[in-house]
Design goal:
Length: about 110
Amino acid sequence: MDTPALASTPLNLLTPGPAATSAAELAKRGEIKKTAEQFEASFLSSMLSTMFQGVTTSEPFGGGPGEDMWKSFLAEAMAKQMAKAGGVGVSRAVAREMLKMQGLAETPA
């Protein structure tokens, strides 16, 4: 590295910092995020199922004994996509609490 490039390099890149986050901690954080997202999807699925209870469809395209079953599949699929796209904030709160329970900071070091 020449002198001008060295002068423009941030100081924190030149000095050794705290130890890098371990692979085990990264794996644990990934599992926590996944679990929190699944919890939010379950919560949203319950909310959407309740919302669909009063929805009826006209005869040519709705009704019949299987309609309620398919509504639950639709609610579950919609909830998973909503949670994957960021949801309503439940997963962030759940993940934050799970991290605290594991003795981890919200952001890795």
